[in-house]
Amino acid sequence: MRLRATVAAVSGALALSALVTPSAHATGTPYALDLSFRNAKVNAGRPIVVGVSQQVTVPVAFTIKHGASVDVTADDFRIGAEIYRGSSEEPDNTIFGSQSSTCTETSSTTAVCEGSIDITPGYDLLSNADATTWSAKGLAVALNGVDPDDEDADWSKVGRAVQDQITSNKLQRASRLTADAAPEPVKKGGTVTVTGKLSRANWEDFEYHGYTGQSVQLQFRKKGSDTYTTVKTIKSDSVGNLKTTTTATADGYFRYSFAGTRTTPAVKAAGDYVDVR
Length: 277
Prior knowledge:
The protein is mainly β. It is 3% helix and 50% strand. The strands form four sheets. Strands 2, 4, 6, 7, 10 and 11 form a six-stranded mixed sheet that branches. The chain has a five-stranded antiparallel sheet with strand order 1-8-9-5-3, with no helix packed on it. Strands 12, 13, 14, 15 and 18 form a five-stranded antiparallel sheet that branches. Strand 13 and strand 14 form a beta hairpin. The protein starts with a strand and ends with a strand.
């Protein structure tokens, strides 16, 4: 029978990370917990996209293998993950989950665990440099009855495991894209002008600004069809604006499509219908 063990909540993974290093007044050194992390995924391996105001919560999943003496069902057993960019020893930024992970035993020495990491613009994100690849670190602590708030606690009774580079993910600045086709209606063979704007989140002033000099495709979908085809490729100007012309041939929808970059996800504008007469 599988047992479900909820990690004791101090204040989520942030408290877990603090537990990895005892206070200066603590005595003893934690022993190495016989536990390893495997098959870790943050946000199911997909890039994490964050805007300028809404908190983003992404799932974290991993399996663990542990020694027979490690009780993952204990009330004071805690486990979770954090993500960071830069070096592991001196990261440029680190983000934790606000909730503790939960593990389900699959055998006497293995378990699958699930948790989450919360990312809040204006709090967790320090600059646009945070739009890069982040590494993930797994942490586990078996307190074995030791009170972590006791500055004189004997930490030689505490087991801990810290495993770096259990997975990695891109963190990206959310993107927006608009399209407006005119005139409406238009005569067949006439000129259709399609304007729009490509913008992305700025994590320094928490506004959306134009994404300049980027290749964007103008696409068309004929009325009654489900498929867009590319008409031409243009580049966004010095403030992210888009503008081009094409010939009206049939009723249908025009949109812009952006393939994305390393720091910014792909995005498609909503199609704008043009009636050709």
